Amino acid sequence: MHKEFIILQDVVVHSVPDGIKTTLKKGMSGIISQSLGDNYTVVVEGNMYQVNGIDGEAIGEEKRQVDSNNFANEEEVWNVLHTCYDPEIPVNIVDLGLVYNCQITEKGEGVNILIQMTLTAPGCGMGPVIADEVKQKLSSLSGAKEVEVELVWEPQWNQDMMSDAAKLQLGLY
């Protein structure tokens, strides 16, 4: 994508890859390097950051957020998971093979959702940020009562867990 921008208003972001929350100030310039799912990956002063889609207007882009009136069934949960990306990799977390388990249990007139997922590397500072994004998006589904996202490390992730489409997109074929 590599589109230049000027920050129009102060915006809270997460630095990549360590996940540290920081504020980019109005007037700073940068480049959008990736715009996938609902978020933007930007480079400002040589550093990479993730801008939440809801804050897109701060970088001159559209405001993005998942608004779903769909009921939290298994198909819709997987659809939402496909909109979550690691800000460094242009492939969603499902095709990367990071989602190990999706458990949906009925609770009254709604459902509880448990997602067990991993990361490409255990030391990835963006892990809590990605997990929080998954939780927020799934919580927006109609009927979602409780959403839990658990980071797990067994089995250890490897490239064989990626879908063929992801491998092709990343040039691994």
Notes on the structure:
With 173 residues, this protein is α+β, with helices and mostly antiparallel strands. The protein folds into two domains: 3-59, SH3 type barrels; 74-169, GMP Synthetase, Chain A, domain 3. The chain has three helices and nine strands; from the N terminus they run E-E-E-E-E-E-H-E-E-H-E-H. The protein has helices at 74-81, 127-139, 164-169, and strands spanning 3-6, 11-16, 21-24, 29-36, 39-44, 47-51, 99-107, 110-117, 144-151. A six-stranded antiparallel beta sheet has the order 1-4-5-6-2-3, with no helix packed on it. The chain has a three-stranded mixed beta sheet with strand order 7-8-9, covered by helices on one side.
Q: What is the element layout, followed by pairings?
A:
Elements: E1 3-6, E2 11-16, E3 21-24, E4 29-36, E5 39-44, E6 47-51, H1 74-81, E7 99-107, E8 110-117, H2 127-139, E9 144-151, H3 164-169
Parallel strand pairs: 8-9
Antiparallel strand pairs: 1-4, 2-3, 2-6, 4-5, 5-6, 7-8
Mean pLDDT: 93
Total number of beta strands: 9
Q: Secondary-structure element order, as H and E?
A: EEEEEEHEEHEH
Sheet with the most strands? Answer: 6 strands, antiparallel
Using the CA coordinates, give the radius of gyration.
Answer: 17 Å
CATH topology of the largest domain: GMP Synthetase, Chain A, domain 3
CATH architecture of the largest domain: 2-Layer Sandwich
Strand content: 25-35%
CATH superfamily of the largest domain: Fe-S cluster assembly (FSCA)
Q: Output the CATH class name of the largest domain.
A: Alpha Beta
Count structural domains: 2
- The tally of helices reads 3
Q: Into which percent range does the helicity of residues fall?
A: 10-25%
* Largest sheet, spatial ordering of strands: 1-4-5-6-2-3
Taking the alpha carbons of the first and last residues, their distance comes to: 23 Å
Structural class: alpha+beta
Low-confidence segments: none
Shape: globular
* Oligomer type: single chain
